[in-house]
Each structure stands twice: as structure tokens, then as C-alpha cells.
Amino acid sequence: MKTIFVTGGAGYIGTHTTVQLLEAGYEVIILDNLSNSRQEAIQRIEILTGKTVTLYVGDIRDQELLDEIFSTHSIHAVVHFAGLKAVGESVSQPLHYYDNNVAGTLVLLRMMDQYGIKRIVFSSSATVYGIPTTSPVDESFPLSATNPYGRTKLMIEEMLRDLYTADPSWSIAILRYFNPIGAHDSGTIGEDPFDVPNNLMPYITQVAAGRLKELQVFGDDYPTHDGTGVRDYIHVVDLALGHLKALEYVGNHVGVEAFNLGTGKGYSVLDLLQTFQQESGQTIPYQITGKRDGDVAAIFADPQKSKAILGWEVRHDIEAMCRDAWRWQSNNPKGYSE
Ligand code: NAD
Ligand code: UFG
Prior knowledge:
Blueprint lengths: L2 E5 L4 H12 L3 E6 L7 H10 L4 E4 L5 H10 L4 E4 L6 H6 L1 H21 L4 E7 L22 H19 L4 E7 L1 E3 L18 H9 L6 E4 L11 E2 L1 E3 H17 L2 E7 L5 E2 H12 L5 E4 L14 H7 L7 H14 L7
Parallel strand pairs: 1-2, 1-4, 2-3, 4-5, 5-6, 6-11, 7-10, 8-13
Antiparallel strand pairs: 9-12
Helix pairs in contact: 1-2, 1-8, 3-5, 5-6, 7-11, 9-11
The structure holds nicotinamide-adenine-dinucleotide and uridine-5'-diphosphate-4-deoxy-4-fluoro-alpha-D-galactose (UFG).
Enzyme class: isomerase
Keywords: Carbohydrate metabolism, Isomerase, NAD
Family: Belongs to the NAD(P)-dependent epimerase/dehydratase family.
């Protein structure tokens, strides 16, 4: 049985990926400092899968702890989710973001190198495509960043490329996520932001659950079919399954490769809102407000490379994403804290 070390495994994407890893027969060790997640998520994973997870509550910047973990367990590969992800917060606290995300990854990579663990799957983001003027975007699109969060992803990508250049025995998959939404169809794990959500889907579900009053739609005069922003929403379970494909890939190849994880389809804010209302039976009050700084009009993925090389394809449509997001939120109106 192969052991996968999952950093940030208690978080939204980490919990969903851990469930898929356990179901596929991997052993999972999680390191998470619980800065944006709750330990209860791990218990839910264990109940859902009937399997146990080894959890270390701690920080990826803690070299002594990594030393302990790497010397105790025989690790096949690392899936590296741990990071801070709020764009606005990264603008007001850039040093915190560079320290947590970039310096944290540096400590992790150095320790992996020391222990000869040279397979990693890294959570990057479509944010590294900056402000594209056309979509779909493929992996060869020029990279740029518009905020400190995006720059941490870009810097880590560059670190990984430099690492492979210096030592071609590394196997590195960089996964560029588009917009993960939805939840496991059991309704027992899902997205549970600590603060008022920044992202569209958790905001909508919290309005539906009565925790927030109304949605603000950021702008309706973008050059899109209805004037609202267009994104490539992807079911979090499809995203999780992409990590299993990427793990197989790094198990069989050396190199450094970036892969888009998106559906290739774009939906506007109003499309998503309407589909959510239809699938949940809830009415979501909203008002159109000003544009949010830094938002792009439209971005969606070209997922052909992931399909061709990883053999990965999405299975869930936008309706399933909305149903599953609502099942999670309606079963857990206050998230894990209940
Ligand atoms: P999340 O906040 O739910 O999960 C991240 C987890 O990492 C949390 O459990 C947090 O407690 C933990 N963590 C943060 N810093 C840590 C540290 N220094 N040491 C140990 N643990 C730490 O976020 P998510 O949505 O699951 O995102 C996972 C990864 O995917 C992140 O790197 C994020 O930047 C990236 N990503 C997310 C999205 C998205 O829309 N959700 C899009 C693109 C990329
Ligand atoms: N939106 C609203 N109201 C809200 C929240 C969002 O109208 O309350 C709109 C945005 O303007 C955008 C769309 O909904 O048009 C999606 O916004 P999200 O915040 O859900 O997602 P983004 O595409 O802006 O950002 C996400 C991640 C970032 C990542 C980026 C690119 O949150 O971390 O995708 O991958 F960098």
C-alpha cells in the first residue's frame, strides 16, 4: 500500500482528495495547521470511508516536525495543498502569504530532497494566467500574476521548474485549478470558510441557508453573454480525481509538467445562480453592484492536455455541482462547527 503525504489535507480540496485516495487503497498522512479548517473534517472522512487517517496538527514550515514525519513513514509522494488562498487578504498581508506559501513550500521541498522523496503534486491555480484576453487557455499561455496570492503560486511553480532543471530525478505535477465548487455527494464534507466567503458558490449557499442576506453580483457590463463574469466551475470530486491521475503520472515519469484542471466550459454568475435556484428550490436574493478589483471578464480552461496525458476527464455537470453544494450546506448550515 503506497503512502501519500497530504499537506493541507483538512481543507476543502484536501478532504475530498483524501477520501478518493483512501477509496483507491492509498494510506494517507495529513499535515495541517488547521488555520483554515477543522479537525472534525478528518473524523468525517474516517466515517465516510471506514478507514483511518494519520493526522499531524502542525505547520509545513516546522522543519523538525517534517523531519519526524519523513523519518517515521515511508512516503511514496506528496500532494501539497497547504497554503493561504484569500486574494484580498494577500494584498493586505503580503509577507504573511509569502512566508506561509513560498517559504513553507521551500521548507517542504528541502526536507523532501533530504529524504529522497522526489514526487510531488502541487496545487497551483488558473490565477497564474493573469488577465487573459481570450479563452480557453491552455498550459502554454504566458504566466503572470495580479496579486500577492497569485505571485506565491507563480513563484512556487518557478521553484519547482528550477528544482527539476537542477535535479532531473524529480517528478513534479503542477495542477492549475479553475473554480472548484460542490461537495462529496454524501453531504458530509464540503467547503466551510471561516469568514464571510470570498467565492461565489459558498456565498450563494450561505444565502440559501439564511446565514447571509443577499448575494452581490460584481458587475453586469462585462463583455460576456449576460454581462456577468464567466468562470470554469469544476466539481471538487472531479478535481480530487485529477490528483489521483497526477499521482499515477508522477509515479511513472520524471519531469515537471503543468496541467489545467477545468471542464472547458464557462458559466456566468447569473447562469450559476439560476442553476443553483433550480436545483435547490431556494430563491437567492441578489443585487448588482460594482466590479470587484482585479476580476477578469471570462476565463475557462482548455483541458485537452490533462485528458491526453493524465487520462483525466470530468464526470459532473453544473447541475450536479449545485445539488451537491446545497446538500452539504443544507445538511450542515453552520459547516463543521455544529
Ligand atoms: P483550504 O483553505 O480549505 O485548505 C488549505 C489547508 O491548508 C487548510 O486546511 C489550512 O489549514 C492548511 N494550511 C494553510 N497553511 C498551512 C501551513 N503553513 N501548514 C499546514 N497547513 C496549512 O483551501 P482549498 O480550497 O482546499 O485549497 C487548497 C489549495 O488549492 C491551496 O493551495 C489553494 O491555494 C489552491 N487553490 C484553491 C482554489 C479554490 O478555489 N479553492 C483555486 C485554485 C487553487
Ligand atoms: N462573484 C460575485 N459575487 C461574489 C463572489 C464572486 O459576483 O460574492 C463573481 C466574481 O466577480 C466572478 C465569479 O463570481 O465573476 C467567480 O468569483 P470567485 O471569487 O468565486 O472566483 P474567482 O474566479 O474570482 O477566483 C478563484 C479563486 C482564486 C483563484 C481564481 C483563479 O478564488 O483563488 O479562481 O483560479 F485565483
